[in-house]
Amino acid sequence: MGTLSVFLDVPLVKKADIPLDYYGEDPHPQKVLLGHAGCQTDAGEAWIPPVVQRILLQISQDPTLNHEYLPELGIYEYTRAATELAIGKESRALLENRAGGVHTIGGTGALWIGAEFLCRWYKPRFSTPTALYIAKPQLDSLGCIFQVAGFTDIRPYHYWKPVSLTLKTLWGHHKLANAPTGSIVFLHAPEEIGLKPKEWEAVAATMEKKQLFPFFNIESQGLASGNLDRDAWALQHFVGQGFELLCAQSFSRTFGLYDELAGNLIVVTKNNETLIRIQSQLGRQICTTWWCPSSLGARVIGTVLNSPALLYEWKLSLRMVVERIMLIREKLKEKLRILGTPGSWEHLTAQSGMCSFIGLQSSQVEFLAKHKHIYLFENQQINICSINSKNLDYVAQSIHEAVLATSLGDYNLDLEGVDRS
């Protein structure tokens, strides 16, 4: 058989600079991971709504449940309720039976199935490859999904000004207005910078004029404002304007079900016949990808969404989390003000939701990692839930020191030289 492997030509994928990796290797007792992906409690533990814990116990003791394969499109009661949550129960698209959901393995699974479908079947009647626009902060983490699915023309757009720490007033309108007709635009809602309805209306008008196709991503509905409909306003507006679109929906953060991934790919079309054809193709894709979705997470979510009493309890839990997030934002801004940290920190409370553009330079992010054992992504985004009553003072003081040190121009390092001793 020989001694050489037939896989000699397989290249090694370069490991990305993921904060979690450095954090895990750091033995320092005061280390903080501001790049955490999930929603956490003040004790630094994964947040799980009490109603979810109860439903999990009930399901485990339900003798009527079996473990048979699910249909390829998943649990209808779950996808129907999830779709209603996002686009509105009274949406004309639902009432006219031209909108539906597809049960996926988490939000990432919805993105993958949607991207693969679009790459194969989206034909805007042009010979050149379809351009796909994606926000710069999501280019590295989600852009690869579209790349692997087959998109070759992926273009970033910007909606955040890192220098002035403000929202771009035109929010990429120049980019979108000059996009090739028929391009796909990946939209994130609710987003941390909080576009107002009129700004979303302007985005929709530009996209309608250029015949651009919206692909929404909703992964934290309810955790931005505490109001489910308000957080989904942008999506509901696009649906109301008659757009055909896709939307990847995730419940990991809002239900605390990180290891029981349950997603939903929402499809909105012009008529029922088109919806049926698209769902048939998505079903075939699912059969060749994961055969059928997993059931536990979807059963929990479906049970809550289809019960008025449980739904009300879950909404209250979301509001409590949002109130905590808003309080942390206020406290962090106030502590930086008291410390006299150079710069304006108003953007901390102007934004919403779990994630926030902190407004630090790359050198300041590196300073925090090397000298203060605080880790976050280079795109300046942090998870506000990673800050709690135990580490708030330390995080504020560390940010203050990072800004002072780097503003003096006496700091220069490479992240590979991070001291983890």
UniProtKB/TrEMBL annotation:
EC number assigned by the record: 2.6.1.1
Cofactor section: pyridoxal 5'-phosphate
Domain Aminotransferase class I/classII large residues, every copy: 32-399
Pfam family, one: Aminotran_1_2
Family under the similarity heading: Belongs to the class-I pyridoxal-phosphate-dependent aminotransferase family.
Protein name per its UniProtKB record: aspartate transaminase
Subunit structure: Homodimer.
